[in-house]
DNA sequence: GATGAATGAGACTTCATTCAT
DNA sequence: AATGAATGAAGTCTCATTCAT
């Protein structure tokens, strides 16, 4: 007994340990550079056990993508309170997104860097998750548009493009904030919210968006 | 007819053929999955010749990153006409950017997907090119602010933050546009220009930015 | 009958088989000319197993040097009986040395021919073993000097120099005896004993050292 | 004109430049590790020229062995003055040997380390040269024996063994003197002469050989 | 007399995966 | 539930050597 090297754990627990190790390894080394040896060692089990539970490197990676995608989605959903006005919801969603990715850098690396870089079947795997995020954002923006009585409605494709732009901007700012001393994560988030909500023109004319008194 | 298998070419020409093949292979397969065998065959030469001229897989990949990064930078610079007003310059730059990435999907894949996913030294290699783009965009936004006599002036740090956000959004959209059939470069540029210039709120209220009659 | 192709052996046994094969191959072909393929085949295993257990060609060669050096050292130590007079001890040590090198020609080739010819880190590896032999011989000569009440006493440095000369002569003669058919280990030992003990001048005057009636 | 990069040299001169480069490279890197590329570059010519003049790596190495063996032989012969008594001749020969090998470390490495370590045809190549050295030493020792009216004469095989022992002792002492601070080459030579001429027993009883007043 | 261009063959090494217990 | 033993296949890289000028 003791966490040093417990044997004979129930399957579900062992599987999670393996996936933890896999996410960490894939996230840091990349899909191809990660070796099953390293994953098994990090998980504290033998290699055949990894194969017994997860079948192959490919399936293991797919499982990682699914797990991390769902976790991210849940985090964003949980961060948004349905009753708020549109800008408040967006602000809350972005904060949740930033928080989750900062706390799970390996998982985020798996989703953002690795899953896109290694072709099928991983791109498809990621696709279905992105569809869910887009649907969620679409809902948000759609609600905002109705709130503003926008007419005619934004096309779905435009919404997807906007979501892509938002995520890209968020990633870029996160990296910049990380690499630049004395730029806080909150400042970065505010910059993004301004950029996204008010647009450059409004910023040029000194009409920024104001964060809600939180 | 055509260069079926020309032999004894001068070194400079052969090197470009090899780099073409390498960009294509790296862009489609990824850095690790691409094999030197495949690159050599696609270039129509033997493997030792690739090593003789380009030394190693790592150096070859670095050379690809540099070549593609410079080409992209030149394309954007060439697309912007200095005399225009700020939004016109931004619009021109974005069009040039999305056009170039659409016309060089493998080169863009090398920069956006592969160089980021395979650790040092490639990330640094890419970083310096990205810094140049960010500096360029920073200049543009600063000019726009002066043009608008914004008061109080935007802090330098805010300008850089906005430029980071814009560049990140552009990168993300370019990947999306490349991966999504029937999204044209011009549409992507318009989506981003709207997003950046008008901001989401204006979009919600059906007050988008209008492209200049070109 | 015989160990045609025994599978699933414990690691320690397999490692010895591999080292046997490696010593033989290195000794006959040389470090560079020996291929890991040949070693694996001679050991009756696949190449990856050799790497799994012994890591690299360099480490494998180093391990061979250490094993053979220790075996030789032990053989010489075991051959010398502490109670004898000085010339008897020297004679016994030389006999053991030449016998061992004659019985392990590949091991001796690894030590004498290959380890010296392929630079660091092998030369150092061998150096420490050689230092042990020299120290051993130094002790022997020192004992002989005390036994003879030599006065004035030999300087320590002179003793080490003599030991170096003796060891070098032995190494060289062993190589020669191994390469020359019909020169027995005992003859080689006698030649060296005469040379070392009586000196050329005494040989010239037909006053050789006499082996003890064994 | 000038030694920087003279072109169109007569064949004999070019060949010597190549052999110089080859001896240096083979001596330092070893036969296998030396590459024709490195040799050609060090010689300041293109690789095809090396092949044009010297045909193959194997022939080039053989030619190096022959050249260096002859040079060593000549040096020793030139060092010995025929009229001297036996110990004086030996002393002179050893000095010439030490001097030549110290001044031509790469050539000595080719003969002593590399030629023996890489099998046929090099071992044979070296063999004929060793035969000449042995004949020379045999003559010397034979003269000494006649001088001493030794009877019965030493067998040829014994002479070869003694020569081997001498050379081995010399090499070992040379290495030791090089690695040990404040042991001069001359001291090493004296130690060897004592060891060889007087023998350990005489040394034990304080009857060393005396170097001739030079 | 001399060389830039080019390659077939083979080396070391790694990895995903399975077998037998 | 778990693992020590083992390998087929593939990858990066080097080298002696030749061809065409």
Automatic annotation (TrEMBL), chains A, B, C, D:
<keyword id="KW-0805">Transcription regulation</keyword>
<feature type="domain" description="HTH tetR-type">
    <location>
        <begin position="12"/>
        <end position="72"/>
    </location>
</feature>
<dbReference type="InterPro" id="IPR001647">
    <property type="entry name" value="HTH_TetR"/>
</dbReference>
<feature type="DNA-binding region" description="H-T-H motif">
    <location>
        <begin position="35"/>
        <end position="54"/>
    </location>
</feature>
<protein>
    <submittedName>
        <fullName>TetR/AcrR family transcriptional regulator</fullName>
    </submittedName>
</protein>
<dbReference type="Pfam" id="PF21943">
    <property type="entry name" value="TetR_C_46"/>
</dbReference>
<dbReference type="InterPro" id="IPR054129">
    <property type="entry name" value="DesT_TetR_C"/>
</dbReference>
<keyword id="KW-0238">DNA-binding</keyword>
<dbReference type="Pfam" id="PF00440">
    <property type="entry name" value="TetR_N"/>
</dbReference>
<dbReference type="InterPro" id="IPR050109">
    <property type="entry name" value="HTH-type_TetR-like_transc_reg"/>
</dbReference>
<keyword id="KW-0804">Transcription</keyword>
<dbReference type="InterPro" id="IPR036271">
    <property type="entry name" value="Tet_transcr_reg_TetR-rel_C_sf"/>
</dbReference>
<dbReference type="InterPro" id="IPR009057">
    <property type="entry name" value="Homeodomain-like_sf"/>
</dbReference>
């Amino acid at each position: 007994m003791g966490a040093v090297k417990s044997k004979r754990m129930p399957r579900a627990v062992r599987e999670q340990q393996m996936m933890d190790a896999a996410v960490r390894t894939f996230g840091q080394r990349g899909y191809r550079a990660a070796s099953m040896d390293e994953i098994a060692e990090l998980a504290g089990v033998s290699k055949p056990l990894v194969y017994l539970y997860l079948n192959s490197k490919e399936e293991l990676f797919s499982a990682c993508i699914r797990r991390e995608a769902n976790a991210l989605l849940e985090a964003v959903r949980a961060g948004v309170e349905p009753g708020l006005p549109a800008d408040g919801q967006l602000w809350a969603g972005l904060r949740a997104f930033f928080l989750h990715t900062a706390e799970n850098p390996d998982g985020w690396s798996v989703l953002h860097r690795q899953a896109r870089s290694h072709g099928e079947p991983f791109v498809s795997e990621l696709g279905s998750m992105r569809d869910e995020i887009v649907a969620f954002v679409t809902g948000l923006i759609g609600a905002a548009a109705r709130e503003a009585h926008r007419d005619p409605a934004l096309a779905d494709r435009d919404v997807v493009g906007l979501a892509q732009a938002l995520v890209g901007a968020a990633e870029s700012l996160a990296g910049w904030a990380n690499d630049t001393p004395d730029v806080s994560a909150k400042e970065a988030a505010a910059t993004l919210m301004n950029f996204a909500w008010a647009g450059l023109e409004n910023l040029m004319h000194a009409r920024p968006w104001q964060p809600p008194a939180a």
